[in-house]
């Protein structure tokens, strides 16, 4: 079976063709905001401007591999959750391709796709999943026909909270990877609010607290510098105001805050994951979503799994952030289970929850 899948819920427009075993082709075009974070309308304009080139690229690479369009069995697309304007561009393209090729349409839940690609590309069979990305942060596991959500963020996603904090520190989007880089230079511990309630967590307060500490430190340093300059002028310092070669104290503080941010946010995520493991009695953990690229998060999860005797799985990095392959592969599972959509039912759903999906493809092969 061969399925074409298109992803474009937010920043990454990506189309791929897969079979049961592997990715056959994948073509991606990434929206990079000039300033600030993701603007939904700009992202949609990006997707509209490049969808032709992305799909065209997939078809011509297929041809080079000796696979004709006719061999595609179904056309899958990311139905949600995501940014409405972006979802509509991708859905329109998918409907059109499905009509032209006369092949069924499959509407895939983006969060479920992050999970299924991980199960596909690792040895995990029935894991507790920590899914942490830009807009979403959830702990899920398969139970009685759906991916049940055991805990989740009650405000914003971990990735978006990192991006927001990083922006306030003057760092470019996306901030997650930069926070990781700075954290490695940390020298001192700082306390930040740890907010887990029951099985759920909050990340907005953490972002605000980190931003506030950063600003307070900056204004403190500015005051000190002003005083120093005055003193230097008075004593005709022979350095003539040259930098003394030390690390900028603002950068040092930023590094400390970045590490504290990671330690706090990841400890919260690991705690809920651990409790879901205990609750479900499962023995595997799978990390999914863009924030899963973070090596400190992997280290912390791995340690928790070792202590509990559970197995820890992380797919290759290309399958962690948004990618066309995850939509194509989940589409393939759904198509084989007969889970396709008519044109009339194919509306997008910006708030589509993972636990509203009937996992039709596991019904025949229950775990
Ligand atoms: P969603 O699945 O919620 O729709 P998304 O579509 O925004 O998420 P993903 O690619 O799954 O996209 O995740 C992107 C997020 O991952 C961004 O917020 C980014 O900062 C974060 N991220 C990427 N690399 C790292 C890293 N090394 N450490 C921490 N966060 C990271
Ligand atoms: Fe995503």
Description of the molecule:
This protein is α/β, with parallel strands linked by helices. The chain has two domains: 3-117 and 319-363, Nucleotidyltransferase, domain 5 (2-Layer Sandwich); 126-314, Nucleotidyltransferase, domain 5. It is 46% helix and 17% strand. It contains ten helices and twelve strands. The chain has a five-stranded mixed β-sheet with strand order 3-2-1-4-5, sandwiched between helices. Strands 8-7-6-11-12 form a five-stranded mixed β-sheet, with helices on both faces. Strands 9-10 form a two-stranded antiparallel ribbon. Strand 11, helix 8 (295-308) and strand 12 (311-313) form a beta-alpha-beta unit. Helix 1 packs parallel to helix 2 (84-101). The longest helix has 32 residues, at 204-235. The relative contact order is 0.19. Residues 219-249 are annotated as: Disordered. Residues 220-239 have a biased composition (Low complexity). Its EC number is 2.3.1.234, 2.7.11.1.
